Amino acid sequence: MKKEHGQVTGLIWRGAADLTTYQKLRDYAAAHELSVATAAKQIIKQTLDAIER
């Protein structure tokens, strides 16, 4: 699979707002000793689980 410019963890990050969000994700991943992809999956799962309640 060929990645597009700015694509990380299957998501495309473009623009200043996206870059800020990605940096927060990267910082979260580092703080929890996770890869960015694993951190993204964890946050998505936790968020979806929370909104299903």
Amino-to-carboxy terminus distance: 36 Å
Give the SSE order as H and E letters.
EEHH
Structural class: mainly alpha
The global form is globular
**Uncertain segments of ≥5 residues (pLDDT<50)?**
none
The overall strand count is: 2
Structural Rg = 12 Å
Largest sheet entry = 2 strands, antiparallel
Strand content: 5-15%
Domains (count): 1
Strand order of the largest sheet: 1-2
What percent of the residues sit in helical stretches (DSSP H or I)?
Answer: 55-70%
Q: How many DSSP helices?
A: 2
Mean pLDDT: 86
Protein name: ANTAR domain-containing protein
Organism: Limosilactobacillus oris F0423
Layout: helices, strands, pairs:
Elements: E1 7-8, E2 11-12, H1 15-31, H2 36-52
Antiparallel strand pairs: 1-2
Helix pairs in contact: 1-2
Describe this structure in words.
With 53 residues, this protein is mainly alpha-helical. It has one domain (7-52). Helices cover 64% and strands 8% of the residues. The protein has a two-stranded antiparallel ribbon. Helix 1 packs across helix 2. The longest helix has 17 residues, at 15-31. The protein is globular, with a radius of gyration of 12 Å. 6% of the residues are buried. The model has no long low-confidence stretch (mean pLDDT 86).
